[in-house]
Amino acid sequence: MKCLICKKALTYRLTIKDLLWPDKISFPVICPQCQQGFAKIGAGRCPGCGRPKEAAMLCAECQAWQEKYGWHLKHRALYRYNDAMKAFMQQYKFNGDYMMRHVFHDEFVQAIQAAKADRVVPIPVTPTTMKTRGFNQVGGLLTGVKITECLQTRQKSKQAQSKKTRQERLATKQPFCLVDDCQLVDQTVLLVDDVYTTGRTLYHAAALIHKAGAREVISISLAR
Ligand SMILES: [Zn+2]
Ligand SMILES: [Zn+2]
User: Fold this and answer.
1) Which of the two ends of the chain, N or C, has the fewest CB atoms closer than 10 A to its terminal CB?
2) Any idea where the Phosphoribosyltransferase domain is (predicted)?
3) Please, what is the average pLDDT of the chain?
């Protein structure tokens, strides 16, 4: 096995536990040096957007969302969007290296299962992105999880968010619609995205899901 990121050979030493429960072994897919580049977000975070923060109070941005909508997201992100994470996303999304989905898959799925939501709803990509990239990067992280694809993009293609300024991102119009018959009444819904940037995308999605009668909408992303 080679590290999925730097391609150096990986070594793994079996522990006694591995010998006792060989079916539970989870072999690493990246090396310890590459692992070190990623920064986990710990317990100190904003309860709204999940940004690392000492006091567990809503940050100014989340207070602004609260004012706009009358509710705020309860978002959790596993990692900071630092240089290592940017390089990872570049390789995974923009270079379309689908193998990269394995790097965080198990950890991400565990966090999703821990949230115990009735429905897991991935943020969709446009048909054009699907055609050029060949996959939905959010779906790739969710392999093996039962998902409800109740969101659709209204436009065939979109201007890449990554090329927009913060102001332009915040001014983005509702990009989604709900598919018919998604039955969200009284459900706890977990929205899933790859990166939380301004929150604009998730708030658009959450607003539709609230409107459809969901009891609670929470969200998670790999990075923030
Ligand atoms: Zn490596
Ligand atoms: Zn916040």
Assistant:
1) N
2) 175-223
3) 92
